Amino acid sequence: MLFLGVDLGGTFLKSGLLDLEESRVTAVRRRAFPEFLNPRVSGAREIDPEALFQGVLKELETRKQERPEIQGLVFSSQMHSMILANPDTGESLGPATTWQDQRSLHDGTWDRISQNTSDSEIWELGNELKPGYPVSVLASMKRTGAQLGSKQSPAMLLNLADWLILRLSRLRPQLHPTQAAATGAWLTGKKRWATEWARQWMGTEIVLPDVEEPTAFRSFEFLGHSWKILPSIGDQQAALLGSGLEQAEISLNVATGSQVSKLISSWPTVPKKDYQIRPFFGDLLLATVTHLPAGRALNAWIRALGFLALERGATEDEIWSELEALAQPARVGAHSPKMDLSLFPCRTGSEGSVLGLTEENLTPGHLFWAAIQRMTLNFAEAAESLPASTPAQIRASGGLILKSELLRAEASRLMKLPLVLPEISEDVLNGLLIYARTANNK
User: Fold this and answer.
1) Count of CB atoms within 10 A of residue 15's CB?
2) Residue 255: which residues within 8 A CB-CB, separation 6 or more?
3) Predicted pLDDT at 72
4) Which residues of 127-162 are buried (b: 16+ CB within 10 A; e: fewer)?
5) Residue 151 confidence (pLDDT)
6) Which terminus of the chain is more solvent-facing, meaning fewer CB atoms within 10 Å of its CB: N or C?
7) How far apart are CA 395 and CA 246, in angstroms?
8) Of the given ranges (136-150, 237-251, 372-386), which has the lowest mean pLDDT?
């Protein structure tokens, strides 16, 4: 049985053929993700949902023409994306937002939410409450008088992938728990919506979808063919599933953002603010530290350090390779500056810095090495904060750590554990393959 897997990432719309019998991912392709719209309000990060739909539609049409035997479709999407839609027609009721939306920080809404939500309430939400989450964005929109729906025209809260499924199939939306938790309004331990709390901030007219782990495929007709479909899953959980993460391991997932995680079998008895708890698959939970600076911060340094080369036509990948060669520890020595990579609001702060500069270490190699050191030190500190265990090794995943030998070596040294790579580089698509195979075998 052949499926098409589609991952809606922060930079690319990635797709691949998933052979459920042979357990293989092939023919991987990437399309550019729609660019952000000009912000209508300070801090907004919005995209045009119609542009996304047309890109996905074109991919489905092309794939079906090339491989008519494709029978099903599975999606993952960037965590914490949000769109309001008519649950019957799929009509979008405004732009979509992503996890990078920070409007609630700019208008004071985030302060109101955090000051009026108790520590116990935040813990029950899995510590899943941040400025860019859908519940925070909706609270900001409500506060500024935006029309979020009515009894006559309901507005359902969906992520980008499940909105696309609704547009394509017209099936009543269902959320996987991994996507429900990403809204910031899901009680992970109790496996239900925090309905009254959510309505306090979002309003009473927002419809929350049904949530369940699927027990079977649903079917719909599209492009003259019948398709099997499952609810979408979060891209973090898809990547970790696809990487082969086991309970005796620490997961280090490094891409545009990064997370340090481990699997746990039960809800912790002692509340801690150091990590989040997210649904995983089956009976497992994911203890995770997220929003650590990674590729987004490094790319900013690459653009700064390689400005002249970029102007002359060099690519960011070429500049990366050159900087990594210049940043080898044996070359830069022990006197690199100290760097804070918090160039945007994240777990480690909201302003970056460089300290300890000298005439000798003010070089591209020293600065890049300082960025790698700070990033990996963040990872080591995050791993120490997770529920106590004695992990056997680090299981790496994500495009950035697969790309950088320097990053892998320093992470292994600081975390004092051997580091292993996934057997397949396309971890998210491989996670979608495992997800579809599991449903097919039920």
Assistant:
1) 25
2) 9, 10, 294, 295, 398, 399, 400
3) 95
4) bbbbbbbbbbbbbbbbeeeeebbeeeebbbbbbbbb
5) 67
6) C
7) 9
8) 136-150
